[in-house]
């Protein structure tokens, strides 16, 4: 039960981290869509996961 609550908390924080990033990155047109895959990447990897998503977004588009 403790592990499930920890993982749910990480997902919740990951979603807010993506939302905060999108508020800042809106001016630069580097918005990362908030979906289950991006939230899971940020929840599992944290800030390095967000950085990897940003690099992926910049390299592809």
Please render the helix and strand layout as text.
Blueprint: H1 2-25, H2 36-45, H3 47-60
Helix pairs in contact: 1-2, 2-3
Explained architecture:
By secondary structure, this protein is mainly alpha-helical. The chain has one domain. 79% of the residues lie in helices and 0% in strands. It has three helices and no strands. The chain has helices at 2-25, 36-45, 47-60. The longest helix has 24 residues, at 2-25. The model has no long low-confidence stretch (mean pLDDT 92).
What's this entry about, in short?
The protein has 61 residues and is an all-alpha fold.
Give the topology string: H per helix, E per strand. HHH
Which spans have pLDDT < 50 for at least 5 consecutive residues? Answer: none
Quaternary: single chain
- Average residue pLDDT: 92
Labels describing this entry:
single chain, 61 residues, mainly alpha, 3 helices, 79% helix, elongated
């Amino acid at each position: 039960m403790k592990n499930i609550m920890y993982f749910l908390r990480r997902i919740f924080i990951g979603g807010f981290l993506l939302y905060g990033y999108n508020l800042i990155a809106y001016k630069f047109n580097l918005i990362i869509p908030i979906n289950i895959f991006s939230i899971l990447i940020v929840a599992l990897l944290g800030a390095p996961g967000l950085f990897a998503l940003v690099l992926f977004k910049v390299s592809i588009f």
